[in-house]
Every structure is written in C-alpha cells, then in structure tokens.
Amino acid sequence: MKYICVFCGSATGNRPQYITEAEKLGVEMVKNNIHLIYGGGSIGLMGILADKILALGGEVTGVIPRFLTAKEVDHKGITKLIEVNSMHERKQIMAELADGFIAMPGGLGTLEELAEILTWAQLGLVQKPISLFNVNGYYNPLISLFDTMEESGFLKKENKNLLLIDDDPKRLIEKLRDYKPVHVEKWLHKEQT
User: Fewest CB within 10 angstroms: 68, 83, 85, 186, which?
Assistant: First the structure.
C-alpha cells in the first residue's frame, strides 16, 4: 500500500476533532510511507491533510479540474498537481493512481466520490480497499442507511462488506493493508416470474 486516495471536505467542519483526526491520519500515512492522492485543494480538510503530510516530509499528489484552479483553490505547495478537464476525469485518475481509498468527513462531493468508487467496486471495475474514517461517529447515519438498504433487499451483504470502517487512523490503514479482494457475486440478475 503505497498510494492512498483520501476523499474529504473542502471545509473543516464545525468540530475540532475533524482537524485533529485529519492531522493524525497524515501522521500515520507518513509513518507508513504512504503517498497521498487527493483532490488537490488547499482549503478545508483537504488542505489540512496535505499540509500535515508535507510538513512531515511526505509526498502528496493532487488531481484538480481546471475550473477549480481558476478559482485559486489549488494547493501550490504539493509534490505534484495534475490538472484535468472535469470532475469525472479527476475521479478516474485518482482511482487509477490509488492502491486504496479513505473517505473522511465531508459534504456532497465526498459522498459522491465514495458512492462512485463503491459502485465501481460492486461492478468489479475496482478491486481495491475502500474505507470510512468514521471520525466522531460522522458516518453512523450512512452506515445505518447501508443496513437499511441490505434489510430492504437493495444491497447485498457482500457489497456492503466492501466498505471497511474504523475511527482510528492507524487501525484503518492496517485494515486497508490487510484487505484481500473478494469475489462479489453477480449483482444484477433477472427477477424470477
């Protein structure tokens, strides 16, 4: 596990734990010689995480659409910045570069990135570990929604189990490292009539 893509907020949130835990994740990534792949921003939790990793001598690659660099939110001090034409291209390149994924607290963009990479895993397009860094129980409602999806017959258990969850960055990185790709049963089938 040399490259981890982290999806996280372009805001810092309203609880100090979000910043503290982003910094802790940065420390663990550097301790484990893990290169950060992220959205390339200088603001919010994205900026906090990138800055911490850089301050400790780690490496950071950002992938950012040109329309966001035009708004001057790109991080000027990272190891490498890749400019792309669209949000879709951004996600595709981040997925190609990464050995695994972590979703930290964030807003709609973070949720959309997580949902897309989970969908790719469900379809068998990605066989890399995907995880939630559940800081301060932030993702408990989403975890509950996944349980409801399974109970209601819309999400197979093996697909729900594609998602690794922890509230400790050290344990989360260990889970990502220990991940073994699993064969996911065919997710689409004809209904029996």
Answer: 186
3-state secondary structure string across the chain: CCEEEEECCCCCCCCHHHHHHHHHHHHHHHHCCCEEEECCECCHHHHHHHHHHHHCCCCEEEEEEHHHHCCCCECCCCCEEEEECCHHHHHHHHHHHCCEEEECCCCHHHHHHHHHHHHHHHCCCCCCCEEEECHHHCCHHHHHHHHHHHHCCCCCHHHHCCEEEECCHHHHHHHHHHCCCCCCCCCCCCCCC
**First-last CA distance in the chain:** 46
- Quote the CA–CA distance of 103 and 129 in Å, as a whole number: 11
3 residue type, one letter? Y
Give Cα 20 to chain centroid, integer Å.
17
The Cα–Cα gap between 35 and 4 comes to 6
Tell me the domain boundaries of the chain.
Answer: 3-178
Strand partners, 164: 131
User: What are the beta bridge partners of residue 63?
Assistant: 82
The tokens for 66 are 């040109």
Mean pLDDT of 11-22: 96
Largest distance between two CA atoms of the chain: 61
The whole model's pTM is what?
0.92
Instruction: Give tens-digit pLDDT for 28-37.
Output: 999 999 999 9
